[in-house]
């Protein structure tokens, strides 16, 4: 990796850390960057998941004010996220690499649709009557989102926010704080497993970790003021580039 490539990876980590804290989908920025600097898809995905863990934790800490009074929800939903992350990580390293290269473009396309549709979903969710804690259906949904996050992870935050918005009655910023905790643990659990069961490229892990920690704090402080349309436009562009790059391999 050249010095310029290293700087680009760090900057991608900053952007991903910030956008993961505010919206989710940071992987749609960092994963294509790791592909572009020469890492194979599975190695890039594993290293990306591990490298973004500190940023996820940083964002969760930055949203600690909105987490007050939600300890019960964390205790209820965290096991679902953790179990899902374990299943997703095992699927990633046991399925053939060809399967990953075939499946991920579809997952990225789904994630891009979710990112683009999120404003419309938020408006629709605001019109629904929801429950305080989401019940068993939310637990199952968070578990499935954890599997998705452990396997690839792009836009898992959008998925979790959508589930909570449909099934739980709460302010969006408090749901976002809860989402940051759940997705942070999905990345953490999957990342720890990857250390023992997968090939990890440690240089991009370190560079992404440094960038994403900074980005997580930026996202927590000023991310709400960033133009949502601009963020979504960047995500769509880099996500589309990732699909093209994987299919061209």
Automatic annotation (TrEMBL):
Keyword list, A-Z: Cell membrane, Membrane, Transmembrane, Transmembrane helix, Transport
Q: Where is the protein situated, by its record's location annotation?
A: Cell membrane
Q: How does it sit in the membrane?
A: Multi-pass membrane protein
Residue ranges annotated as transmembrane are 7-36, 42-64, 76-93, 99-117, 137-164, 184-208, 229-248
Q: Which GO terms describe its cellular component?
A: plasma membrane
Specify whether rRNA-binding is a keyword of the entry: no
Pfam families per the UniProt record, alphabetical: TauE (PF01925)
PANTHER family named in the record: MEMBRANE TRANSPORTER PROTEIN YFCA-RELATED, TRANSMEMBRANE PROTEIN YFCA
Instruction: Say which family it is in.
Output: Belongs to the 4-toluene sulfonate uptake permease (TSUP) (TC 2.A.102) family.
Q: What is this protein called?
A: Probable membrane transporter protein
Source species of the chain: Saccharothrix coeruleofusca
């Amino acid at each position: 990796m050249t010095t310029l490539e290293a700087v680009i990876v760090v900057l991608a980590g900053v952007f991903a850390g910030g956008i993961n804290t505010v919206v989710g989908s940071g992987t749609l920025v960092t994963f294509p960057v790791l592909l572009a600097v020469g890492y194979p898809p599975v190695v890039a995905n594993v290293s990306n998941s591990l490298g973004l863990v500190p940023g996820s934790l940083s964002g969760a800490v930055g949203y600690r004010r909105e987490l007050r009074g939600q300890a019960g929800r964390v205790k209820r939903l965290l096991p679902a996220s953790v179990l899902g992350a374990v299943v997703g990580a095992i699927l990633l390293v046991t399925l053939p690499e060809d399967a990953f290269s075939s499946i991920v473009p579809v997952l990225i396309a789904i994630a891009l649709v979710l990112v683009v549709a999120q404003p419309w979903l938020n408006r629709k969710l605001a019109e629904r009557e929801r429950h305080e804690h989401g019940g068993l259906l939310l637990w199952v949904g968070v578990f499935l989102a954890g599997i998705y996050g452990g396997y690839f992870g792009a836009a898992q935050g959008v998925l979790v926010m959508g589930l909570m918005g449909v099934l739980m009655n709460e302010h969006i910023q408090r749901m976002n704080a809860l989402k940051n905790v759940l997705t942070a643990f999905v990345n953490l659990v999957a990342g720890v497993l990857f250390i023992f069961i997968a090939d990890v490229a440690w240089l991009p892990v370190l560079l992404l970790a440094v960038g994403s920690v900074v980005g997580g704090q930026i996202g927590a402080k000023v991310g709400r003021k960033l133009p949502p349309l601009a963020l979504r436009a960047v995500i769509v562009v880099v996500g589309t580039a990732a699909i093209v790059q994987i299919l061209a391999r």
